[in-house]
Design goal:
The protein contains five helices and eight strands; from the N terminus they run ββββαββααβαβα. It is an alpha/beta fold. The termini are far apart.
Length: 132
């Protein structure tokens, strides 16, 4: 049986039954490129879909370093990722995400949500669209 949960220094990754990888960033932690390179191979190995559908849930006071924000919009990353849903629960995260979307312009469909239920519903729709 495949593992459904993985932990790094700054994140918890959970594979949901809906085929979505939920990445919870621990409160006060900074995600680095090293952490990304630990998570993505594990997700690829354990996912049931060809590409990753990712829900990112930042904890209070968490952030991602500049290298991660740059990596998020590369063609290399988009070869593994089909869609990103980002949950925002603080004004600081909303500002960071809005800046990221406006200036970095991700290659993959990326949408911002205030709750995980709406984000998961949207990602499930993306899975269905890509199967067609």
């Amino acid at each position: 049986m495949k593992a459904t949960r993985f932990e790094t220094e700054a994140t918890f990754v959970t594979l949901l039954d809906s085929g979505i990888a939920r990445i919870d960033i621990k409160p006060g932690e900074e995600v680095t490129l090293d952490i990304i390179h630990k998570m993505h191979p594990w997700i690829n190995e354990n996912m049931t879909t060809d590409k990753q559908y990712v829900m990112i849930v930042p904890g209070v006071g968490s952030t991602a370093d500049h290298e991660v924000r740059s990596y998020m919009v590369t063609e290399e990353r988009s070869s593994d990722i089909a869609a990103d849903a980002i949950i925002v629960s603080t004004i600081a995260h909303r500002l960071i995400v809005n800046f990221y979307l406006k200036y970095n312009r991700p290659y993959v469909p990326t949408k911002v949500f205030t709750n995980t239920e709406a984000a998961e519903k949207w990602l499930v729709e993306q899975v269905a669209l890509n199967k067609s």
